[in-house]
Amino acid sequence: MTAKTREYKEISRSQADEAIELLPDERNILLWKGLIKGPQESPYEGHIFELGIKVPDSYPLAPPAVHFVTKIFHPNVHFKTGEICLDILKTSWSPAWTLQAVCRAVLALLSAPAPDSPLNCDAGNLLRAQDMRGYSSMARMYATRLAAMPQGSSIVEQPHPSSLNTFKEDH
């Protein structure tokens, strides 16, 4: 059994994390959609963000490519491409990391942004200037406009009028 198949079965058995839902593409086990619930006491609280996850053939020896499909205002996420600046997705990757653990790390990044190495300079500058009010206001505004609370998701408590962006294979 390959590592990818084993992880698929493991995730299918245990969707225990109420803030994360992982959904494999029906036609390609190497493509996944991650839905993450904005962390409590963060500007993202009350919203769901979609991640595109592409698992390489060499997984788990190489990290998956993960990006935000939902646009998000965050210093460590490129606003246009959704690229995430997170060390475990690059230099600190370990085969011990699972897709679920990667999503948990992304959630932790939403709670504790690192403004010193920003992909979104506007967000990084607000945090470096210690303008938490301005940063939170911008992040909440974008989350309200662009993030979703899709019906039928196991991580949703209440429906939201927005709809999810479509999952893209090409990123």
UniProtKB/TrEMBL annotation:
Residues 1-148 form the UBC core domain. It comes from Apatococcus lobatus. The active site is at C85 (glycyl thioester intermediate). Belongs to the ubiquitin-conjugating enzyme family. The keyword Nucleotide-binding applies. Pfam families: UQ_con (PF00179). GO terms for molecular function: ATP binding; transferase activity. This is UBC core domain-containing protein. It comes from the Eukaryota. Keywords: ATP-binding, Nucleotide-binding, Transferase, Ubl conjugation pathway. InterPro entries: Ub_conjugating_enzyme (IPR050113), UBC (IPR000608), UBQ-conjugating_AS (IPR023313), UBQ-conjugating_enzyme/RWD (IPR016135). SMART domains: UBCc.
